[in-house]
Amino acid sequence: MRYEGTVYRPPSEAHSLILQATIGCSYNRCTYCAMYIDKRFRQRSREDLLTDMAMARESYGPGRIRRVFLADGDALIMRTPRLLEILGDLREQFPNFERASVYASPQALLSKSVEEIAELKQAGLSVYYAGPETGHPLVMERIAKGVTPDEFAEGARRVVEAGAKLSVILLLGVGGTELSQAHAVASARWVNAVQPRFVSTLTLVPVPGTPIHDDVEQGRLVLPDPRGILRELRTMVSHFELDGAIFRSNHASNALPIGGTLPKDKNRIVAVLDSVIDDDSIPLRPPPSPHAL
Ligand code: SF4
Fold it and tell me: Is 51 part of any domain?
């Protein structure tokens, strides 16, 4: 396969073919995100993607490709007819193709109607990874998502309404010590209003070269310590009112790997967090280097 620059994918797409339908991110302004700062956004041609598919057929065998992640950061921003064409090519090239997935920026989500998302799902694009990071209006403004929490929720709900799977990512620590608890409550309420199938939390690890790294270095954002992060997570989980969702907080950036099915495991998760928060002798995972993520 041919890839341009560093390619990122959600952890759960580890066994998917990564098809770089676009390069970079069309938005590229979130203050904590360094993934595509060195790339200029563009869509790749059909010819290029067909060549990549032919290479994947050759390398892995056509029957072995079942799942495909459409990279880079914002492939959903492509016009719906072009996405449908890519999905058609995938079905043609890979006889066992089951489904595609994609990162979904709020701008891309809001550019699609429920009907378009349903049509894309029918064609195989059935999993969307969206990162509001917070449901708190001031925090979302500070990290420059470019929309309000209500606008992001409107876009995210279209995925749920269309019957596709929505995976939501929240970012612990992003409100700093000042807004830690408010960020936790607002984020849980945001998630409750959207009802995604999957919810995961990562912990903010400021990457040099990003505006949020400068904020931390210059003292404008004071990050909670690891137990403060767990207190934030405890508040978030205790406010979740989810009707059948998989919750994960087990990324390398998380001090304590934990997860379960909600609402079934909510009380257990809160109890584990309480016991760890209250016992300083329990070691926590140290924050990773930004380069290890
Ligand atoms: S929309 Fe996603 S990929 Fe683009 S800058 Fe924001 S976090 Fe990064």
Answer: yes
